[in-house]
Specification:
This protein is an alpha+beta fold. It has four domains: about 190 residues, no CATH class; about 375 residues, TIM Barrel; about 100 residues, Chondroitinase Ac, Chain A, domain 3; about 140 residues, Sandwich (Jelly Rolls), CATH 2.60.120. The protein has 15 helices and 43 strands. Helix 12 runs antiparallel to helix 13 and helix 12 packs antiparallel against helix 15. The longest helix has 24 residues. It comes from Bifidobacterium oedipodis. This is Glycoside hydrolase. Pfam families: F5_F8_type_C (PF00754).
């Protein structure tokens, strides 16, 4: 079959071509806890990336999980010292006014104003179970309807048997606010009243330990005994009822996650009994017909249990209440050892560097929650006993003139803190590329201006992301985050004005826009400027996200990312798999200080490389200082190829530092190992965050692959002696021979390959048709195997084939004015200064050359470039 016939067969029907980019999205692995039983509808679930990290999937897409919480019923019941629920208080002068349920719509309107895609909604057990075993879903349905109205998803924060490890007791629970005033908070009990007081309003100790007497904030939940089992089953039943109700009432899947209890780790029996209780509650969610991801939040910084050990709990994270960027990085890195999905479950809304904290969390593979939206419980004396936390109307001792949340009305936006304004702009861009951020592996993410707790007003840096160098310049203290997906780079920022985005390689195109599913919706094209230093610059404005379409990247792929890692010495919380996950914060920690030890990478497919890097943090205290590099082609016979020498590390902080060891080019390698001979072991062990393995020839090899595609297609043209003149074919033969010589040269340079590609293209474009043969199709309409050509020599409209002398309209020019058809070689261009002939392939060129081979080459090159889906259709003829 000729190349022309091959093209016709391709065009006869759509053809789908799939290509997989290295280090892209793998077929996800499901966490053991997240699959629904017996076909229940899965609203959200946790999935695994290539590098072992996990992400939240919602509606079949990675989901950037970021939210701000409101307290729902607690807010409606009252502000401290203002009003409270009448639940047996002995102070007759205490106000009893409450806000109507409809008031809570304000929380949804104000959250949507900040452009959050998720709202975290506190839901109390007592909101649903109004009598023993009787459920009223009015409150929940209102939340779901408001979320739909304002275009958000819901994270339910379930306040059930435990709020801060227990419950508050009417007439017994109180605390002191920032002014030193005693504050009654007994009205904030979370389970139905019959678990905390009797019919006369007296506290009971059947379910909660009230033996310590009056004055505690939260009284510990009793987790064992007959009454505890009764209460556990009752809580299971109400959660099961909630999710069965959602399965019927919410076909849109508005609720995407649920937090099981609030800060339960303060319970004395948390690690032994209460975590099992919570896991049982998770079962009610996971065995329903409305399955969502389940999460746990911890008071403090640690991970009290390994959530991976509990079947029905998906992930957990602490409530650190910290302004330090380094704390976010550390928490996420440590959290990955005890969870699928590491996250900051709760951090204060009062922090001025909120977007920095979010960015540091996202870029390290975590998710972020903010507490809280309003100034409920945040009065002028310091609020929730340790300071104000609100994004709106955040009162402090100097801000008594700010409105209180209970004065809010729909349609009016209250005073916003500066961090609220920052996050409002940032969320606009994050929402546009959130699926890319959430789904990217660590090596394909980078962040800007988060090296310090507070962003620098003047900042300029260029970071690696994927296989590219991407720069970020700001003069307004902006932060930014970027991800790579194949040859596309995506970036956004919280800038209030604009920032400059730079690249070392010239982008093919840049546009502002946003993702609509898998498709990029362009809002505007962006001009590219060449700077004096030879880099390329584009402008990113406030609220925007950019996509930069790039050529093949100059940076090198870390081959270690596709290997399996093992070692002779490790601690279970810091396994060998951390050295090739692409994350420079997670690492391998040896069991002790003893050496020598081995760290090994093995591949299923043979690899070629010429450099091996070791990366570490706090290097002076814990990095290896001397190691051998050994390789194996069969996994059993090892050969030493290099030694690091004695390394003097410079850093003593969390700055990632690397030592690169160059080795002779290795080929056919299936195993690489580092023999650790010496190490800094100030803390009793050595630590390695990453091992990186690269091939410096990779960019050249990528271009050679494209060149070989062009050569293959050119070879199909060069045999068509019945179509093209001998002189033009001879020029093509020479170009093919020269290109093949370059491709066969293992030492060829990028410049040589590009030059060969250019010359080959010129030779193909320079092919000249022989004089017209009267319209006969060069292949006579027949396939070599005797079959009929797909179009039978006919145009789709019944006219002759394009090579047959008739136009698509049966002899008329495409404009219908009766001028000669282009196929007859006599068509005059509109300016009557030159003629244009359709070549034998039926594709028009104003130089009489064949255009279609390059179209096929473009498809092949696109596959190499990493386009994941290409649909080919026959294009109509056109006249240049």
């Amino acid at each position: 079959m000729t190349t022309k016939q091959m093209l016709r067969k391709l065009m006869a029907a759509p053809v789908v071509v799939l290509a997989t980019m290295a280090l892209g999205f793998a077929t996800p692995t499901y966490a053991g806890a997240v699959e629904a039983n017996d076909g229940g509808r899965v609203i959200s679930q946790i999935k695994q990336k290539d590098n072992g990290e996990w992400y939240l999937e919602v509606d079949g897409q990675p989901y950037l999980y970021s939210f701000v919480q409101n307290m729902g019923t607690w807010e409606r019941l009252g502000h401290q010292q203002e009003f409270k629920e009448d639940s047996g208080a002995d102070d007759p002068d205490y106000p009893t006014a409450q806000l109507d349920l409809s008031f809570t719509e304000n929380m949804y309107e104000k959250t949507a104003n900040l452009n959050y895609s998720t709202i975290s909604q506190a839901l109390l057990w007592r909101d649903i179970e109004v009598k023993p075993g009787v459920y009223d879903f009015t409150v929940l349905d209102s939340y779901v309807n408001w979320a739909k109205k304002y275009g958000m998803k819901i994270d339910l924060a379930w306040f059930g048997s435990a709020c801060q490890s227990g419950s508050r007791i009417p007439t017994m629970s109180y605390a002191w606010n920032g002014k030193g005033e005693k504050v009654d908070i007994g009205y904030q009990y979370t389970p139905p009243w019959w678990y905390v007081q009797d019919d006369e309003g007296n506290p009971i100790g059947t379910y909660y330990d009230i033996s310590s007497g009056e004055g505690k904030v939260d009284y510990p939940l009793i987790t064992s005994g007959e009454q505890a089992e009764e209460m556990k089953q009752a809580e299971y039943d109400v959660l099961a009822a909630i999710f069965e109700h959602l399965a019927q009432a919410d076909p849109d899947g508005t609720v995407i996650t649920i937090q099981i209890e609030n800060e339960p780790n303060g319970n004395p029996q948390f690690k032994t009994e209460y975590i099992q209780w919570m896991n049982y509650l998770g079962k009610a969610v996971k065995t329903s017909d409305y399955v969502v991801a389940t999460r746990v939040n911890y008071s403090g910084w640690g991970n009290d249990v390994n959530i991976n050990d509990y079947e029905y709990l998906d992930f957990a994270g602490p409530d650190p209440y910290s302004t330090k960027v380094s704390d976010m990085k550390s928490i996420i890195a440590n959290g990955k050892q005890y969870n699928t999905l590491a996250h900051i479950a709760e951090n204060s809304g009062s922090y001025g560097n909120l977007t920095s904290l979010e960015t540091a969390t996202f870029v390290n593979g975590g998710y972020y929650g903010t507490w809280q939206l309003s100034n409920w419980f945040c009065d002028g004396g310091g609020g929730h006993f340790n300071g104000p936390h609100a994004l709106y109307s955040n009162r402090d001792t100097a801000g008594d003139n700010q409105e209180m949340y209970y004065e809010w009305t729909l349609g009016e936006i209250p005073a916003m803190t500066q961090q609220a304004k920052d996050v409002q702009r940032y969320n606009l861009g994050l929402n546009k590329i959130g699926t890319k951020i959430a789904g990217a592996v660590a090596s394909n993410r980078t962040a800007f201006n988060v090296d310090t707790d507070d962003p620098l007003t003047q900042y300029e840096a260029m970071n690696r992301v994927g296989r590219y160098q991407l720069g970020f310049e700001t003069t307004d203290g902006a932060v930014g985050i970027a991800v790579a997906d194949g040859q596309n780079l995506y970036i956004t920022s919280d800038t209030a004005t604009s920032v400059t985005v730079t690249t070392k390689q010239k982008p093919d195109a840049v546009s502002a826009g946003g993702l609509n599913g898998d498709e990029w919706a362009v809002e505007s094209e962006r001009d590219i400027t060449v700077l004096d230093d030879g880099t390329y610059a584009v402008t990113l404005n406030a609220g925007e996200a950019l996509r930069l379409e790039m050529p093949v990247g100059d940076e090198l792929t870390n081959l270690a990312l596709t290997a399996e890692a093992s070692t002779t010495s490790e601690q279970s919380a810091y396994p060998a798999s951390n050295v090739n996950d692409g994350d420079e914060w997670t690492g391998l920690k040896s069991k002790d200080a003893s050496v020598p030890q081995y760290v090994t990478l093995t591949w299923d497919e043979a690899q070629s490389f010429d450099a091996v890097d070791l990366v570490g943090i706090y290097a002076q205290g814990q990095n290896p200082t001397n190691w051998d590099v050994e390789v194996s082609k069969d996994g059993s016979t090892w050969t030493k190829i290099a030694n690091s020498g004695d390394v003097q590390w410079a850093s003593s902080d969390d700055t990632a530092e690397r030592k690169s060891v160059s080795v002779p080019m290795q080929q056919g390698i299936k195993g690489l190992r580092l023999k650790i001979n010496k190490a800094n072991t100030s803390w009793g062990a050595y630590y390695i965050t990453e091992i990186q393995v690269t091939n410096s020839r990779e960019p050249v090899n990528d271009l050679v692959a494209q060149l070989m595609e062009q050569i293959e297609l050119a070879n199909q043209e060069v045999v068509r002696t019945d179509v093209y003149t001998e002189s033009s074919l001879e020029a093509l033969r020479s170009a093919i021979e020269a290109a093949q010589a370059v491709a066969n040269n293992d030492a060829c340079t990028k410049e040589q390959v590009k030059d060969a590609m250019d010359k080959l293209k010129l030779a193909i474009d320079g092919l000249e048709n022989k004089p017209s043969d009267g319209g006969q199709d060069p292949d006579d309409g027949q396939d070599p195997d005797g079959g009929q050509d797909p179009d039978g020599g006919q145009d789709p409209d019944g006219g002759q084939d394009q090579g047959g002398g008739q136009s698509q309209g049966g002899g008329q020019d495409s404009d219908g004015h009766g001028s000669a058809d282009p196929d007859d070689g006599q068509y005059q261009s509109p300016d009557s200064t030159s003629s244009a002939e359709v070549n034998g392939a039926g594709w028009l060129s104003n130089t009489g050359t064949s255009v279609w081979p390059m179209a096929v080459a473009g498809v092949a090159m696109s596959i190499v470039a990493g386009i994941s889906l290409v649909v080919l259709r026959r294009s109509p003829r056109h006249v240049k």
